[in-house]
Amino acid sequence: MTQVNTSENYLPLTETTVFILLSLLPGAKHGYAIMKEVQALSNNRIMLSTGTLYGALKRLLEQTWIQQVADPIPNETERSRKAYALTELGKYILNAEVKRLNALVTLAQHQIAGAQI
Question: In the CATH hierarchy, which top-level class contains the domain 13-115?
Fold first, then answer.
């Protein structure tokens, strides 16, 4: 039997993956900008090491949730930087995770209200 790849095959996402995808939602960023955006979005709770970030980026590239693009910010050094952007599949997966989390929160709120904590 052939398994169909749907968003449910990839969910739940790790918190780090969610924050990386969220950081790319407004537009392409290079690695350091992703690290800073994840830190800001998480209120300084998640501080990615370069190893963690680039390992995650490699996996996300392989899954085609992100793609490498031209760096949107001019680089004043001669050193080239890799920049990354969400693909349509990446946006779809992120949206599916947000829907999953919303359903979980709704269920929890109903359970808490019913228990009258």
Answer: mainly alpha
